[in-house]
Amino acid sequence: MALETEQGITPAPDSSTRGIVSAATILAAGNIISRLLGLGREIVIYDLFGATGYVSVLKVASTLVLTLYDFLVGGMITAALVPTFSEYAADASKRQEFWRLVSTVLSVLAVLLAVAVIILEFFAEPLFTILGAGYDAELRAVGVQMIRWILPAVFFLGVAGVLSGILFSLKKFTLPAFTTAAFNLGIIVCALLLAPTFGIMSVVIGVVIGAASQVVLQLFGLRKSALRFVLDFKHPALKQIVRLYIPVLGGLSVMLIGVAVDRNLASYTGPQSLAWMQAATYVVQLPLGLVATAISFAILPTLARAIAPNEFRHTLVFGLKLVLLLMLPCVIALFLLAAPVIALLFEHGAFTAQDTLETSRALQLYLLGTVFAAIDQPLIFAFYARKNTLLPNLVAVVALGIYLVVALTLIRPLGYLGLVLANSAQLTGHALVMLFLTQTRLGGLNGEGLGATTLKLLGASAAMGAVMFLLPTVFAVPGIFGELLRVVIPALIGALVYIVVLKLLRVRELEQVWNVLQRRGRAL
Fold first, then answer.
1. DSSP code for 227
2. Reduced 3-state DSSP string for 79-127
3. Distance between terminal CA atoms of the chain?
4. Do the domain assignments include residue 170?
5. Helix (H, G, I), strand (E, B) or coil at 228
6. Is residue 21 part of a domain?
7. CA-based Rg of the chain, rounded to a whole angstrom?
8. C-alpha–C-alpha distance, residues 421 and 499, integer Å
9. Which domain range does residue 126 map to?
10. Assigned domain for 247 exists
């Protein structure tokens, strides 16, 4: 039954919202497992190797792999593959053509990725120099070796990304939801088993094995499909994919420059700076992955298939409301509990109390741009669903300019924290421009109660934050259990306050999420 509506506000169709919440729930469940394993991965790495220069150059190598993946395939999935695949998948008469198209795309990209990896192997040294010129000779040598070992992961990640695009277009979310879990599990197992023999290179081996496991997992889900090796360069949909992807490629080039500048500047702020920044980044990415990414992927197929402007706007606004509903309390809680969270997660083994202090400072500054980053994802996906890939990537150029101005201004007085603030400014600027463009180019977000809901969510978050801030934070219980209490008790009390205030303010999206979770619980 459709929920009661405010005067003048028409809700998204009940079946549509149920489908979005259901898909987002599946993706979030996969993300929870993935993030828990990712947390285990980071704990293992920092426990075995500490926040050292070796971990910093490992992060450089990992960043290179993920950036290349985004550059070659990752950006194509949301911008071109899912919208184009969904168009064919939605029409039963095009099902045979759908499988020919996806087979062609998969085959072509697999060949191109293999060639790219082979070529990049010859440029491992200049690649590391671009990202980490400030490290000493020993760390640079280790970093170059890491890049040579880790590059095959780009091939496997790329193939896995295309397979995810195929499954998303068919509205099959379960296996793609667990690919990152498989990736993280591969890293953990290899690090624990191979560290005595290969040292920190065991993590690099794990990255490659984890990436390969993503391909195996999703091929299992497509084992009865009509996938085959096809190199049909004349397929008409390929032109559309290329046309949609060219602006994304430009935007990713800008992002690549930004990442290179950020890593290069970080290498001049001390050998441990990047390790602290990456540990903080990982914590920030936990709620972003669980909430913003899950909801954005859940609404993308529906947005891509939406014909009526009202349906498109309903879906987008509902996605934004869900993002704000879940992200605002996460950001407030993490900001207030930054030091206890970092200590609980990382202050073991070789990770010291000083590392906790520096990482928690970075975490709090990253959080300043996190809510903006969260609402930015659905807005970008909305443009991609309307096959407009140019504007979001032009905005990326503006956002990079914001980053450079802030970073170059603050790096001298604040060191690595200046780079963190620059990142938050970049994310905030990008989101604000995207909101403006959504209003002017996509028909706007008016008439859906987004403003009123946002005010209610901000009020509930403020109440939650005030209660958490006033709570005592000292517990007599020593050890890991005491660390756990310092995080869990304030978080649970804060969550309870947030939910109570939302109920008092009659925030309907909370009821929708709760109803879907109840149905899924009964189904289990």
1. -
2. HHHHHHHHHHHCCHHHHHHHHHHHHHHHHHHHHHHHHHHHHHHCCHHHH
3. 22
4. yes
5. coil
6. no
7. 23
8. 31
9. 53-253
10. yes
CA atoms within 13 A on the CB side of 483: 14
* pLDDT value at 362 more than 90: yes
Q: Phi and psi (nearest 5°) for 497?
A: -60, -45
pLDDT at residue 18, as a whole number: 60
Lowest mean pLDDT among 56-65, 375-384, 402-411, 471-480: 471-480
Q: Which two tokens stand for residue 485?
A: 């209490």
Separation of alpha carbons 37 and 282, rounded Å: 12
Is the pLDDT at 276 greater than 50? The verdict is: yes
Q: Give the three-state DSSP class for 308.
A: coil
Q: What is the DSSP string of 192-220?
A: HHHHHHHTTHHHHHHHHHHHHHHHHHHHH
Angle, CA 465 vertex, CA 27 and CA 379 arms, to 5°: 40
Q: Is the pLDDT of residue 71 over 70?
A: no
Count: domains in the chain: 1
Q: What is the mean pLDDT of residues 354-368?
A: 92
**226 inside domain:** yes
pLDDT of residue 209: 94
For residue 503, count other CB atoms closer than 10 A to its CB: 12
Q: What share of the chain is helix, strand, coil (3-state, %, to 5)?
A: 85, 0, 15
Helix axes 309-336, 273-287, angle to 10 degrees: 130
Distance of CA 257 to the CA centre of its chain: 19
Q: Cα–Cα distance between 37 and 499 in angstroms, integer?
A: 28
Q: Give the containing element (helix H, strand E) for 405.
A: helix 390-414
